[in-house]
Amino acid sequence: MIVIAGGEYVPLYGDREVPVQVAPFRLDVYPVTNDEFLTFVRDHAQWRRQHVPPLFADQTYLSHWQDVLDPGGLAPADAPVSNVSWFAAKAYCQAKAKRLPTLDEWEFAARANEYEASAADENAFNKVILSWYGKPARLPLPNVGHSFINVWGVWDMHGLIWEWVMDFNSVMMTGESRKDASGLDGQLFCAAGAIGSADPNDYAAFMRYAMRGSVKASYTGQNMGFRCAQDMDEGILGGSP
Amino acid sequence: MSRFNLVVCVRLLGFSVLGLALTACQRQDQTSVKAWVAPTLAQIQGEEVAVLTHPPAVPPSIKRKHPTKLIVNLEVQEKVARIADGVDYTFWTFGGTVPGSFIRVRHGDLIEFHLANHPDSKVPHNIDLHAVTGPGGGAVSSFTPPGKETVFSFQAMNPGLYIYHCATAPVGMHIANGMYGLILVEPEEGLPTVDREYYVVQGDFYTRGAYGDPGLQPFDMDKALKEQPDYVLFNGSVGALTGDKSLAAKKGETIRLYVGNGGPNLVSSFHVIGEIFDTVHIEGGTALNHNVQTTLVPAGGAAIIEFKVDVPGELIIVDHSIFRAFNKGALGKIDVQGSEEAIVYSGKQRETVYLAEGSTSQSMPEEEPLEKLVLTAAQRIEQGERVYKSNCAACHMPDGSGIPNAFPPVAASDYMNADVKRAILTVAKGLEGEIQVNGKTYNNVMPRLNLSQDDIASVLSFLYSTWGNNGTEVTPEMVRNALQ
Amino acid sequence: MNCRVKSIVGLALVLALLSSCSGGEHDTDKQSESAHSQHESMQMSSAGALSGQSVYQLNSAWTNQQGEQITLNSFAGKVVVLAMVYTHCDYACPRIIADMRLIREALKNKAGQISFVLVSIDTKRDTVERLKRFGEETGLTKQGWTLLRGGDADIRELAAVFGVQYRQTSDTDFAHSNIITVLDQQGEIRHQQEGLGLRSDATVTATRKLLCYSHNGRTINC
């Protein structure tokens, strides 16, 4: 794992005048791979695809694996595991004495490009991210550690998969972007703020928020994986893969 | 809602797929033209799966005389496809095509809408059908992540032709990538029978590279915000409605075009060269207009256009905001077969020499720039390429190959390579009459282009430097001398 | 006024219900009732293995307003009407609680078979004492009302299960979905009312239906 020195950032949601403070934390260098997840389901039979109850994962959970304990050709060992639910991702991290990163932690770490910790205003950086969002991704996914490494030393924050975060369900989006932008539906949500921005560079972030807002905790998707995080005062540094 | 309007109340309650209960009530005041009472659940008979078609095809007209429960299955697919020759684009589609599948329902039908998002998709999508009476037009109810399917129901409360589109953030990007199509709510009595129906939707596209730049071109948000499209297209690609994909018709037939405009930005001045629209359902609604030359189709709007084709030949479909047609791709064709109708249209009957009195008309004197930029040969070629793309490529094609029988090639052109001065004069003054290029005869008009002497030197230097031409370097001095 | 209610049936087949009315009558219940009774009737629960959809698979620990430690499956065997709120909320949560009271009032002859549960999303301020006092001040003292507090991760997980979205927006406030969830005796989600200021008829009907039982081939008590 790698230490991400905290700091403040202005998220897409909420008041743009009030930055959010992110405390220092540790983050996995790579997304969790098929090989690592295979080890986890070997050790935790309740997370094998024939055992997992529908409350915790829908029917496409690990469905691209050739067999229960054999990822096979569509899920190469070093490719990120996908088709995993939020519950499964959470359980994996817990088993490693880790946890999922919070949305703020993930977004904070994801603002870094190769050269600086805060590249969110870099037009070129955002264009690269947007162009990945704009392309469909078919299985098998590429291996981890091949897209780009950011200034913190973290690989693949963009350009490989969507990633679960602990509080993915803190995103209040109805999917009705016009309404989301103009103020949330007062009947569906008790909230003051609107998710809205005129900054075109926020479009990349918009798409991540839309993705998070569209899923439920049991959902699995072939482009959706995860990595784990850890509090600074928790345990010792875990080994990087 | 104004009390002078038709006040319609529908309330749909669903407890399971089979247990749908529906009551409808309606109040109407005297000023309304026509009373329409939404069918109750008891009046909705049977169940059908809607026939969807890819453009330019339209599903068959509805013969049913009663409202039904109509199941619509639409799948979102994100796919790479050709936007122009040699140019690919990642389209986001409803049903695999741009525009999306055509949906045809009957006024009063209860539509159970299934929106699936392919597992390969990168992002969640939804659908806002302008034919829906209800919040978001279905957008909230149909928010669907990759690998999922959502279901919602609505009753088709108003007849007409409506756009549907994706409304997921960023909505402009989803639309710019091709996420729109048409849904026709056919009036209960149906539409008059015609011989042919076609489906045409205009859209504007924003690519990183300029028009024609080869390879897979990503979406360009900056250009989209500035509303400066590189492509303005009918049915999602350059040439989607030309060549062997031209719309077919026979002399004497009646044609109905279902025309939409997905936008995201531009309003279309929809026109068919050589035809007058007998009837236009203005904005896709109930009002009819007749004898129309050009009809405006707003972004997120539609029109139903009907006309009889009386003479054979090619009718050209354009956005009459005309640079879009000839420089950005907004061109289509209707190929009308049949024998000539000389009374309706004669063709060219005579061509004679015309001698004007006095001197020839003058163009404005060219103003010399205050400070002359001296270009190197390489810079001149680079600038010439830009000049070519914006002034010449539309006819001589982006690769210089020309169009058989119409526009001669400028690639490996013996006509050009044989005589530089003639080439300069051709670009500077235009050309008319028969010429031979690479063994083929061309007889057409090349207009005089309003290019500066520097631009003429640049574009010719570019042409001579590429595509198998002889490498002649053309300087502004050569242009000046040739023109003296 | 536009409103939207979600009804969850079987494998989360969601039909969005649209109601878009300006004038006119709103009589819907005759038809919807008959649609209901054609539907399968629920049997009273008998304790057994949890289904794969049961919320009671969560083993998180919670504390009620009496300071007692409980797990969610202690509600098993009863129908549960539940919402996630915070007691310092002064707009939406009182409305949600008012809706739950109305539901309870409509089902008062069966109140003994239903648990009304409020789960706090405010771990800092909603202490056991605060929950107890809040319950007393707002008259939620009758039997059947339970106010719960828990750990942040457990609240996040429970919200994920119910599809409740929430986020702390300041030191004192939260943004959150306005959802009332009905669980059957086995802990499966049978109905969700999403949105404020709705008529709770559908929720009442769905809850009542869970309390029907079959006797000698007849459906009783619906």
Give the gist of this structure:
Chain B has 484 residues and is an alpha+beta fold. Chain B is built from 9 helices and 25 strands.
Question: Order of strands across the biggest sheet of chain C?
Answer: 4-3-7-6-5-10-11
Shape descriptor of chain C? globular
Cα-to-Cα separation, first versus last residue of chain B: 72 Å
Counting DSSP E segments of at least 2 residues, the number of strands of chain B comes to: 25
For this structure, the CATH topology of chain C is Glutaredoxin
- The CATH topology of the largest domain in chain B: Immunoglobulin-like
Could you name the ranges of chain B where pLDDT drops below 50 across 5 or more consecutive residues? 1-32, 358-372
Mean pLDDT of chain C: 77
In percent terms, what proportion of residues of chain B is strand? 25-35%
Separation, N- and C-terminal Cα atoms of chain C: 31 Å
Largest interface between protein chains, with number of residues from each side: A-B, 39 and 37 residues
Report the mean per-residue pLDDT of chain B as an integer: 86
Shape of chain B: globular
Proportion of residues in β-strands of chain C: 25-35%
Biggest sheet architecture of chain C: 7 strands, mixed
- CATH class call of the largest domain in chain B: Mainly Beta
Molecular structure report:
The complex is a heterotrimer of chains A (241), B (484) and C (222). Chain A has 241 residues and is α+β, with helices and mostly antiparallel strands. Chain A has one domain (2-231): paralog of FGE (formylglycine-generating enzyme), CATH 3.90.1580. Chain A contains six helices and eight strands. Chain A has helices at 34-43, 86-95, 103-110, 123-133, 177-182, 203-214; strands spanning 2-4, 7-9, 20-22, 25-27, 162-163, 189-190, 224-225, 229-231. Helix content of chain B is 15%, strand content 34%. In chain B, helix 4 crosses helix 8, helix 7 (420-429) crosses helix 8 and helix 8 crosses helix 9 (476-483). Chain B folds into three domains: 1-43, no CATH class; 46-362, Sandwich (Immunoglobulin-like), CATH 2.60.40; 377-483, Cytochrome Bc1 Complex, Chain D, domain 2 (Orthogonal Bundle), CATH 1.10.760. In chain B, the strands form six sheets. In chain B, strands 3, 4, 5, 7, 9 and 13 form a six-stranded mixed β-sheet that branches. In chain C, strand 1 (2-9) and strand 2 form a beta hairpin. The radius of gyration of chain C is 17 Å and the shape is globular. Chain C is an alpha+beta fold. Chains in contact: A-B, A-C, B-C. Strand 6 of chain A pairs antiparallel with strand 9 of chain C.
